[in-house]
Amino acid sequence: MAVTNNAVIRAALGYVEANPAELDTVRDLVLLALDGPPVVSPRTLPAHVACRAAVATPDWRVLQVRTHPGGPWRLPGGHVADRDASLLGSALRQLANVAGIDPNVVRLDSASPSDLAVVAEEQPELPGAPEHVHYEFRYLLHVSSDETDLPPGAAARWVPAADIPGTLGTKLRLVRTAPAHRPAAASASAR
To answer: What CATH number is associated with residue 82?
Structure first.
């Protein structure tokens, strides 16, 4: 079952309920989804949806990958496929494909996206595609360590969460310092 525009609208409205300061970003995506073609299709221009996984280790390092030589370092993810049943499912599928991380070994922070970013794609991944915009749904996932078996030829690195730019970086810094996310010893000593 393909992800529908209605599913994107539901996810976007749920996101803005938790992040009301980001209403402008969500409004534009909802209008695009209401207006016409499938917003999850990479052929929908001038913008469409993509999904990414923000994978964090216990010491708050975040996985970044480079999908082609000289390309930018990004969170694992990309375009939604026709076979994806949900936005989160798309992020998990791509995490497995790009970084070799089995979805069964990650712990979800939430089934809702942790961040929704508007990203200009100046070097599109599809050959011949014009510059366009991705509305990236980003899901925070946790792994027990940075020991992963990456697919052959994959470029990956773990960076401190503090080095992640934009609203996602700000949110990761806030989540990291929240009491529920502190290691047990730190939580106990904070009392």
So the answer is: 3.90.79.10
